[in-house]
Amino acid sequence: MVSPVPAAVASAANATGVAKAGIAFILKKSLISALVALVLFSLMIGVRTDVGTAGQLVYWTRFGELAAIVGAVFVGSILVELLRGWFGPREGVQLPQGVQRGLSWAGRLIGPAALVFALLLPVIFYDQRYILDLAILVLTYIMLGWGLNVVVGLAGLLDLGYVAFYAVGAYSYALLATNFGLSFWICLPLAGILAAFWGILLGFPVLRLRGDYLAIVTLAFGEIIRLVLLNWQDLTGGPNGISGIPRPTLFGIPLSSGEDGLAALLGIEFSPTHRIVFLFYLILALALITNWVTIRLRRLPIGRAWEAMREDEVACRALGINITTTKLTAFATGAMFGGFAGAFFATRQGFISPESFTFHESALVLAIVVLGGMGSQLGVAIAAVTLIGGFELFRGLDQYRMLVFGMAMVLLMIWRPRGLVGHRAPTVFLEHNRAIAADMVKEGRG
Amino acid sequence: MDYLAQQLINGLVLGSIYGLIAIGYTMVYGIVGMINFAHGDIFMIGGFIALITFLVLVSFGLTMVPVILLVVLLVSMAVTALYGWTVERIAYRPLRQSFRLAPMLSAIGMSFVLMNFAQISQGARVKPVPPIVTGGYTLHEGADGFVVQISNVQILVVITTVLLLALFTWMVSRTRLGRDMRACEQDQTMAALLGVDVDRTISMTFVIGAALASVAGMMYLLYYGLVDFFMGFLAGIKAFTAAVLGGIGSLPGAMLGGLLIGLIETLWSAYFSVEYKDVAAFSILIIVLIFMPTGLLGRPEVEKV
Fold this sequence. Notes:
The complex is a heterodimer of chains A (446) and B (305).
Chain A: H1 7-20, H2 23-44, E1 47-51, E2 57-61, H3 63-87, H4 97-124, H5 129-154, H6 163-180, H7 184-203, H8 211-231, H9 233-236, E3 242-243, E4 249-250, E5 253-254, H10 262-266, H11 273-299, H12 301-311, H13 313-318, H14 323-349, E6 351-352, H15 359-371, H16 377-393, H17 401-415, E7 423-424, E8 436-437
Antiparallel strand pairs in A: 1-2, 3-6, 4-5, 7-8
Helix pairs in contact in A: 2-3, 5-11, 5-14, 5-15, 5-16, 6-7, 6-8, 6-14, 7-14, 11-12, 11-14, 12-14, 15-16
Chain B: H1 2-32, H2 39-59, H3 65-92, H4 101-122, E1 127-128, E2 136-141, E3 147-151, H5 152-174, H6 176-186, H7 188-193, H8 198-224, E4 226-227, H9 231-246, H10 251-271, H11 277-291
Antiparallel strand pairs in B: 1-4, 2-3
Helix pairs in contact in B: 1-5, 1-8, 1-9, 1-10, 2-3, 2-4, 2-8, 2-9, 3-8, 5-6, 5-8, 6-8, 9-10, 9-11, 10-11
């Protein structure tokens, strides 16, 4: 089958062809999908291997499950084809003016509304420890997302090893606090500075790299940090990690049940929830600082330089922008926020080990940034809530969680490659501010 | 000296495995221009398929080792190739016209899917296999009693790699498909205008890459005698390092890079520390990219404004 049509035209023609196709075509296509599934899963699902009692390998067959899955693929494929036929490619659908105005008005309200909700959350859900814990987790990822957004979204440098800075922050606080007894409030800036330093250290060698190469070097860097943490037993405790990390204090006042605790000083009854609420407001404040700093930086020359570099590095250089400082500051700023988040993570958990800083975390944070529309602050927050919340929804499925996460990542990329919030507000504009469709914005080439 | 010779042999074998995986990376990067993150997991799936086929064959009472090996090789190549095809069809083809980050993230997602699919369907425990190919030759016996050996498995791995490479090189340089692949690598639009089915060629690239990775998976299984669901990640990154070291897009480069990475890793473990062998491999990746971004045999990338 030789088609002289370029790929783009071919796929468009294919899409309309499917919409008009009859039931025979759908059945044929689904049958092929089912056959492919049969071959794919025949060995991996049809046969289950395991280590027997004597250490030898044993296997047993699971043809029931195999049949069920192949059947599910067949039915699912028919459904997908039917849905595609009914809804078809809808292009050029324009919402009425009034609705559009209403939507943009509502869009402007989401940010403040979410902020008010976040501020009131501990009051509303004071008794529900689970919700508070989840909210802290979500906020941690929002902060990480905003931090990485500086590197990926604003400066256009693809960083697959962001978790390294998170780890540097966490281990800085853990080591400084357990070895030298420094308090959280002294360690927090130190953790940020150390992480920023590592950001520059990573930034220097990769200055000349672009795009995919940069991605793979940052990935290698993240793995190196994790492997060193894992193997430098004397300092980091290796796979056992560091435990007994001190809890944060309210500027020196511990949140404990003791005589000098906050509850005793205020004359109220002690409750462990106090610390959770405190942690919640702490991470909320840290995240909001990240957001505020980023928004302010975007209006400074350095922020403009980041965005200019993202759009076109060569033009940027031609205009006399110093690429070296621009890249290094982007790496350092992003890394610093990662370091703050890491210090917070260490103090919240009280225990850290290299387990928490795998490539999977980097991928998760990057997925948040990309789903958030690369550069949109609100988008990152929405994406973090969606992803981490979705993760929690599948908690019952436990072992299927990562499988679902991977599938969701693939499907979301196919469905909305430009992220959930598909436009950015321009930093500089002529006369009136208009949102730019994401398709118009070039991605960074690193 | 003998110790070094032994390490060189071991490194060569490990390098052959990396090289086979690296070819898949370099081919896909050359044609589609993306890092196929799921390729390491395809290698892992290949190892699992080989293990299962082997178990089933043995339980059917087959005892002739060459026959078993041949059947395992063919089955695992065929099934894993279909995995490669499916991954491309589901996760990459819809994103062909999309912006550059999209297929990369989709590939990371697919890598998670494959890894967790293997974990769920086959369990998280490491699966050990009894040695299938046994025996070997003593090459040299030193005065201090140190023996330089080459085992039959090692010979098998190297010979299979060389045969596959010869076949593959012939295919790329002499067949219609190879010509199509090279055409797509240079200019997809022009190739399409001249009657090359671009979609099919890209699919075939993934199929061939997956088949080679499955052979690597089977060799890994024979050589190390175990598979687990997580082995694709590290092997994948190292093979990618090999592809970059050799110059991405260059097929002999991928093999050369694979051999170098295998040797470096083995020698590092032998003379410095086993714990930091992965750190050594990754550091090499970073150093190569900084000082020689085009790799050993790669072409310099010219940026047009």
